[in-house]
Amino acid sequence: EAIRVAVVGATNLVGQAVLELLAERDLPIERVYALDVADKEGESAYYGNLELDTLAVEEFDFANVALAIFVAGSDLSRQYVQAARAAGAAVIDFSAVYRHAADVPLYAPQINDKLLDDLGEAPLVSVPNCTVTPLAQALVALKPAGLQRVTVTTFQSVSGSGQAALEELASQTTALFSQRDAEMEVFPKRIAFNVLPLIGAVDEQGVSEEELSVEQELRKLLALPALAVEASCVRVPVFFGHGWAVTVQTEDALSAEKARELLAAVGMQIVDDPAGEMPYVTPLEASGNEAVWVSRVRRQGNALSFWLAADNIRAAIAQSCVATAMALMKRGYFA
Ligand code: 2RA
Predict the structure, then answer these.
(1) What separation in Å is there between the alpha carbon of 160 and the centre of ligand 1?
(2) Is 172 in the pocket of ligand 1 (CB under 6 A)?
(3) Residue 330 Cα, ligand 1 centroid: separation in angstroms?
(4) Interface predicted TM-score of the whole assembly (ipTM), two decimals
(5) What interhelical angle do 319-330 and 13-24 show, nearest 10?
(6) What EC numbers are recorded for this enzyme (predicted)?
(7) pTM to 2 decimal places
(8) 41 Cβ partners below 8 Å, 6+ apart?
(9) Domain at 94, CATH number
């Protein structure tokens, strides 16, 4: 049976990608509502070729939909997620609000599918940070070797900070080429031709929110509460696509060859031929598609290292939200 769906945050980069992918996957959807804050009311959003008028979430009655996908950030999730459920809608939430709640499943495709069984009516499913999902998908493939320690440095594109950040990178770049001063609004330092070693606020130990989110969400997703994780999250002057330089220690030694085999078996795209025409994949080739790309798999001492690249918006968020919707549909939550 076809259902009605609301996308909250429909005018932002993530909302646009979710609408695009919902249309591409051709789900049994009767009607889509594009919702956002009242300021955005009337803006166009596109569900495939269909132009939608964005409605104000403040005035929306969630009893109209079977499913609401929230990609509008923590404030709107805090305000409307429980109201949507109370009106009978299932909710998929891409925000930090419920990721650590003990009674809310943190779900990512191919990692912990069983969590979606038996959720009851109007379920709430939380979707991980885009910096976490592709990494967790790779690690779950290596889990049979016994994960002990994960050390990761992320190279995060500016689209992770939204549309205004894309514009800031573009305008700083052109300003520098025409000998004008680069203006800064989104980032505290110049992002063009630079890298910024801090994403989000820091705690008393100096660990950033983004780094903490990698640590905590990985442990919850992989159901390994004692996993040792060290993350360093860095913003780089790239428009779309995140990169991850990962090192893992496992109980059983994993050869590079075996690791490639395990990663390929869960659908990761392996491009790893240093002498070949395509030696490795960069965020540029990862952008615009839903794959998680793996390169540079190698052993270093007693650890295994590799490189990942994925489109942070399309592969890591939109694909997760839409796959979650499909998984809920398959289990009959909207019947
Ligand atoms: C980023 N992961 O890439 C963040 C967004 N939540 O900036």
Answers:
(1) 4
(2) no
(3) 29
(4) 0.96
(5) 50
(6) 1.2.1.11
(7) 0.97
(8) 54, 55, 56
(9) 3.40.50.720
Residues 106 and 84 in one domain: yes
- Give residue-wise pLDDT tens across range 27-78: 999 999 999 999 999 999 999 999 999 999 999 999 999 999 999 999 999 9
Q: Which of 210, 216, 311 to mutate to test the pocket of ligand 1 (most atoms within 8 A of CB)?
A: 210
Q: Does the Cβ of 208 fall within 6 Å of ligand 1?
A: no
Ligand 1: which residue has its CA nearest to atom 3? 160
Separation of alpha carbons 38 and 41, rounded Å = 5
On the CB side of 73, CA atoms within 13 Å amount to 9
Per-residue pLDDT tens digits for 129-168? 999 999 999 999 999 999 999 999 999 999 999 999 999 9
Query: Ligand 1: which of 12, 74, 99, 156 to mutate, most ligand atoms within 8 Å of CB?
Result: 156
312 within ligand 1 shell (Cβ under 6 A): yes
Q: Averaged over 188-202, what is the pLDDT?
A: 97
Lookup: tokens for 164 = 């205004």
Report the candidate in 308, 329, 321 with the shortest Cα–Cα distance to residue 260: 308
Burial class (CB in 10 A: 0-12, 13-18, 19+), 158: buried
Which residue range forms the structural domain that includes residue 41?
3-128+316-330
Same domain, 320 and 307: no
